[in-house]
Amino acid sequence: MDHIIRIVPLVLFLATSVVPQSCVSPTSSCDCFEENKKKIINCRYKNLTEIPTFTNIYQVYYEIRFTSSEETGMCQPSSGCNNIRQIGANAFANLKVKRIDLLNNPITKIDHHAFDGLTPELEAISLEGDGSSVMPYQALASLDVHLKNLHLENFDHQVIQSPIVFPFPILESLTIKKWTRLDSIDAAVFGIMQNLTELKLITLKNLTTLPVPAIQKFLKLTSIDIMDTGIRSIFGDTFTPMSVLQDVKIRNNIYLNTICQRAFSRITDTVEYLDIDNNNLNVISIEFLQNENWPVLSQLNIGYNYNLKNLPKGIFTKTPALAYLTCQDIGLTSINKDMFTGLSNLHTLDLAYNEIRTVSAETFKNSPTLVELRLHGQHNNDHIDFQNNAFSGIETSIETLSLFKNKFNVSQFWNDISRLSNLLVLEIMDTGIENIPDKVFRNNIKLTDLHMADNNIISIKQETFFGPKDTLRTIDLQRNQIQTIDRCTLNDFPTKPKMMLAGNPLNCDCDLLWLYDWFELQSYQDHSMVACSSPSSLANKSFTKFTRSEMCANGTLVVTCPDLYATTTTSTTSTSTTTTTFSPSLPVTILTRKRDTQLSLITWLAIGGTVLVALFIAILVSILIFKRIKKQKVLTDSISFMINTDAQYADKKAQHIMPKAGKEGVIPKHSDINVISVEEMADIRILSNNSYQISNKKGVDSPPIPLSSEHLSDATPGSNLETGHGCVNTGFRNSTEYLKES
After folding, report:
1. From CA 233, how far away is CA 209, in angstroms rounded?
2. What is the pTM of this model?
3. Lower CB count within 10 Å: N or C terminus of the chain?
């Protein structure tokens, strides 16, 4: 019988070791749950005043948590926060756990044998004192050869020195936080900790000088965080022995105003992340960036150093790998391309919360890979002046642009936006915008998120979102002044985007019946917050609080929406959509010239596959008008044509014209064709002899072209004209063709 009794515990142990068990708490005072397949004992908010008693159930838990979210001493009794102040001997008997979190418990006394029995499983422990108790170094000594992570908060020491020691040879992470009187650390204290990789010195207000000899003991350190201390300077060679340091944070030190040029000497080859934000640095204090090469530095934060005021020319020339640069609230009033020289691999640039009034031409030209630009929340009472070509160089790279809480020249702004062909996210909330020009997003065909809340936009129509019909997924128009929305607004979208309209004074009459139906069909659309302003019978009622007939007694309305992407129109009810089934239309204008004759202008509208036929017929007609030219006769003057289409189509269409013309006896002087896109236009100069001339970056110049009522007729002679038009050189002598915007 005695043998049987002895076997039973062994059988139970083997059973619990082999058979998967649910998460069972080893104490009735706490519960248990799994987090990422790890068993956690949850003792948070249990009104505990002491460590509970544990029963050995032969499991090793990942962590036991006694902490709370509130600051120590700030938790209300009704919240159930723990208030453990003493830990007695063998307090954790029968518990097998890897991590213990006792933060937010103002511990005043810990017995020397409090942690006995926790090894070898225990690897990490977090303790917090009451501000007047000393660090329990004798109790912690029992964890010496096993502890890997130690967090000590709110203990009362002015100096860390002998007899206090940290006997943890395999310790990897050490945090010393909120020791209000601490002003120095003796180097010998850390002598044995040669494997430390992470050090955090946080909220040490009395620490005015970094304990350089002490931290230089950590030769394997890869991460250091010096935050909210009283330090004034970072001296030369402070980090010199730390040859593998990668992550450096020196932040929120309000008295830190000096970083010596050699402060990071010998570690610049390894540092990948450098955060020196929210200190008291001036422009001289960041010259260390130019002192040595930083070949692997990819993230740099110099934000909230308001006294910087400027970024010196060439400050980033030795940071070629920099991808993420944060310069929030550093007092900048203008930006130009000299500031960002050397940042050829930049991905994200954060310039928010400065005082920027001017964005100079080609400011970002040195950063052709820029994907995200944040310029929101500038602290000035004036408009931001985006000079012409401010976004030059990043037109095809920028994907996210944040400009909310700013004011700017609206006409120039829309012109700039239309050039950003790869734009995905545009944030222009609270910018005072009143009107969105028709087809302004025509070139932003990849746009997915459009945020325009808190503006003064009055109306929305079908042309408003022309362009990104296949990609746009979110349209935020909350808190504008919109009274009505054209029923064809979303007609062209194969997949309807989410449109947020709360806070607009909508006039809920029959013209908005389509919106009621659309809300009903879009299950993901929250329309409970969208309310009517008028008529009076529906005022202040959300779309969920009235019926369709209350909104429009006449019922379903027939809607005819023009297909902006083709020449056809489709009739539909307010709950249906139209689908584009035809190729884009191409209005073609043939302009013929012959010596001693006037111009003859013939316009055709070609649809889909009839383009070539239309071109051919137009050429024949124009030739017949001015008498048939003998076959194979080489022209001494030109035949010109104008194609109202995108530049990407013009090359193909121009090539088709020449052989057709050749069959009728018209042979161009040469057959090369150059297509000049909108972006490559340099200028259109108005000449004094009632004509204009087009030039571009490829060096193709047109001859003087007579002005007409259709083209630039109201321009002042000798003036430069802002235009979005492009031109095509067909190769015909004396002929540069004019393309209208499509």
Report:
1. 7
2. 0.72
3. N
Q: Is 720 helix (H, G, I), strand (E, B) or coil?
A: strand
For helices 611-625 and 647-663, what crossing angle results, to 10°?
50
289, amino acid identity: L
> For the segment 588-598, what is each residue's pLDDT rounded down to a tens digit?
333 333 333 33
Q: Is 351 exposed, middle or buried (0-12, 13-18, 19+ CB in 10 A)?
A: buried
* CA distance linking residue 690 with residue 698, whole number of Å: 25
Q: Which pLDDT belongs to residue 737? A: 39
CB 317 within 8 A of CB 295: no
Q: Above 80 in pLDDT, residue 734?
A: no
- Note the pLDDT tens digit of each residue in 327-337: 999 999 999 99
Q: What is the dihedral angle through the alpha carbons of 7, 12, 16, 18, rounded to the nearest 10 degrees?
A: 40
Facing residues of 359 across strands? Answer: 335, 386
The structure tokens listed for 629 are: 């030219």
Angstrom CA distances, 651 to 485, 648, 727, 728, 735, stand at 39, 7, 11, 8, 14
pLDDT band at 631 (very low <50, low <70, confident <90, very high): very low
**Residue 65 forms beta bridges with which residues?**
42, 101
**Assigned token pair, 229:** 């201390």
Contact by Cβ (8 Å): 179, 157:
yes
Q: Which amino acid is at 436?
A: I
Helix (H) or strand (E) holding 63: strand 61-65
CA distance 114 to 324: 46
Q: Which residue has the higher pLDDT, 504 or 638?
A: 504
pLDDT (tens digit per residue) in 143-186: 989 999 999 999 999 999 887 778 899 999 999 999 999 999 99
> What does the mean pLDDT of the chain come to?
79
Q: Are 684 and 694 in contact (CB under 8 A)?
A: yes
Handedness of CA 606, 611, 615, 616 (dihedral sign): negative
Where does 327-436 have alpha helices with state H?
410-417
- Beta-strand (E) ranges in 282-323? 299-301
